[in-house]
């Protein structure tokens, strides 16, 4: 996981994941709030408002009927409906407070609720006084009628507001559905786009990494990668007390091919020879192009005798195979220099120096042959001359 986060694509994916979760939390909170507001049930509140509206004409009727009753009964009758009105008012106020999404929409009515509650309390006190003073009954009736009108206006206004909010609920649900659909499409599109971008960046990174490790013309490993592989192979050979052979291969008279047939033909010769060498190499070996027409083959767990056998097989195969689509007077040949170290006792530069001297010796002895040169402290694994291959081409050596 830590390695993934250190990669550019991993960091980008992590940033997107964090943004995705933050955006999801914000959208989720908005959707939850909108759903709560849209799904609020105002049935109880509407019922309370309707009941309160019915109490207003009842109070008016009570005042008219009360005028035909004795004073004491008339006051008690009015006081009963005053209590009913206050009860309805408190019920409606409580229902509004339970709907927190409704409070802001009807906040402008708070003053009317407080004023009506105070007027009902004052009316109740006047009713108490009217029981002892009959002359106060007429003012009591007029005040009760005014309060009834205020109640009627307040409840009608509140009912209109609740109905308007109910209509808004339907609109909110429609808009919410559209918004969620659009956001979902955008998020999916963003996720797909980011995934494609991460894949593209990953491929580009692999391509750049491959370009750093390989030779552009032949597709073989380059010198930089060969040095890294050789360092690891030398460490492994030192740990296992094994042998490590290094082979330098050089195309003979390659300058003549470029001068005679042109550089494009020379490049094609290099490509086809590289392809043959790669096909003939063992999976455990590392083949690299380290110069213009010079190649290197790193062979772990291989002694000098076996390395020379491999070298002779490569030399013979290159000489025998005709290149496709190239009309040369003769098949190209290679000269090879081989060296071996045991137990990882040398550095890559030292190995390369011995192999280069062996290659120079193969060139000096007529080309198209393999020569070996061992470090002074290295034992010779077999008896006989170092030269393994015979000379097939007797042309003079290039300068």
TrEMBL record:
Substrates-to-products reaction catalysed:
2 GTP = 3',3'-c-di-GMP + 2 diphosphate
Domain (GGDEF) spans 242-375
Where does the source fall among the domains of life?
A: Bacteria
TM segment ranges? 12-32, 176-201
Looking up Pfam families in the UniProt record yields: GGDEF
Q: Which SUPFAM superfamilies match?
A: Nucleotide cyclase (SSF55073)
Q: What EC number(s) has UniProt assigned to this enzyme?
A: 2.7.7.65
Q: Which UniProt keywords apply?
A: Membrane, Nucleotidyltransferase, Transferase, Transmembrane, Transmembrane helix
Instruction: Output the InterPro entries linked to this UniProt entry.
Output: Diguanylate_Cyclase (IPR050469), GGDEF_dom (IPR000160), Nucleotide_cyclase (IPR029787), Rev_trsase/Diguanyl_cyclase (IPR043128)
Signal peptide bounds: none
Q: What class of enzyme is it?
A: transferase
Q: Which GO terms describe its molecular function?
A: diguanylate cyclase activity
Q: Sorted alphabetically, which PANTHER family does this protein's record hold? A: DIGUANYLATE CYCLASE DGCM-RELATED, REGULATORY COMPONENTS OF SENSORY TRANSDUCTION SYSTEM
Q: This chain belongs to which protein, by name?
A: diguanylate cyclase
Organism classification:
Bacteria, Pseudomonadati, Pseudomonadota, Gammaproteobacteria, Oceanospirillales
